[in-house]
Amino acid sequence: MSDRSLRGMRLGAQSLESEAGVEPAARQRVEYRTEDGEQVFVTFSVEADVPATWTSKTGKEAFLVSGEKPAETEGKPVRTHWDMLRERRSLEELEETYKIQLNKLRASRGEDVDA
């Protein structure tokens, strides 16, 4: 056993597969441009659906150069927490609840509680 040595490989550094005969998937390079002229190039598969907008690295919205600007859709307005609360309670009920909770807080701190 001393006349033979066992050889190993480095962990994760090398693959036993060769790249012979492997062809990468067909790709397309798509250009987007922001309102201020910043160019963004993104590579997609030829089979992929190309979105009309893309967010650049700077956080700006970029539009497809060869396409049209997407139409603004008039959707439902965003309902905030306050809007949903106002659907369930009147201002008088909210004022009363506020006073009760404020009195509880003051009592827990040992402060004078107004009735």
UniProtKB/TrEMBL annotation:
Example of a GO MF term: bacterial-type RNA polymerase core enzyme binding
Matches recorded under InterPro entries: RbpA_sf, RNApol-bd_RbpA
Transmembrane segments: none
Coiled coil: 84-111
Superkingdom, natural source: Bacteria
Annotated keywords: Coiled coil, Transcription, Transcription regulation
Region (Disordered): 1-27
Signal peptide, first to last residue: none
Gene Ontology biological process terms, A to Z: positive regulation of DNA-templated transcription
Pfam families cross-referenced by the UniProt entry: RbpA
Summary of the function given for this chain in its UniProt record: Binds to RNA polymerase (RNAP), stimulating transcription from principal, but not alternative sigma factor promoters.
Quaternary organization: Forms a complex with the RNAP catalytic core and with free principal sigma factors.
Family under the similarity heading: Belongs to the RNA polymerase-binding protein RbpA family.
Listed name of the protein: RNA polymerase-binding protein RbpA
Upper lineage: Bacteria, Bacillati, Actinomycetota, Actinomycetes, Micrococcales
